[in-house]
Predict the 3D structure of the following.
Amino acid sequence: MNDFASQFTARGFALVLPTNDKPQFERYIAKQTTSSTASVERVPFRRQVDFWAFSIAAALASGVSPLQGPVSKWGTTFIYTSQGILNEDLCSLLAVIAVAKLGSDNPDAMDPSRIIDLANRLAGAGCPIVLKRLSEDKLRTTPMDRVIELSRSFTDGVRSV
């Protein structure tokens, strides 16, 4: 597999999450610019890219289709890949997802711009799933408890495929 992290860093591909969901997902992401006293139980994602990647996992585990239409119509850029936000493991995983979704014989499956586009569309589709689960009002559970419960359900879904 190619060194996708350097390919993604070499050009600035936008990472996108749904515009309409921004106020909701920001509640679960630690603020880097302030000295937040929120605990990880209440704010389970350290960075927006972590929420983005978890939303991709939610879309895949739930079997939903990637969002369609121009990303600019439904999404807001939160960071660019040229800022070094993606590590090699996540980049490789995104490439594997692209091969699985687009087909191994499709040249787009190895194109960094197509890989990020697919990832953004999956994150857009998975974001409402994550937010719905995080907003469930169960007695004595925190957002972190709900994230862990949701991630366990992904594992169960993958095992049944």
In short: The mean pLDDT is 87. The chain is about 55% helix and 5% strand.
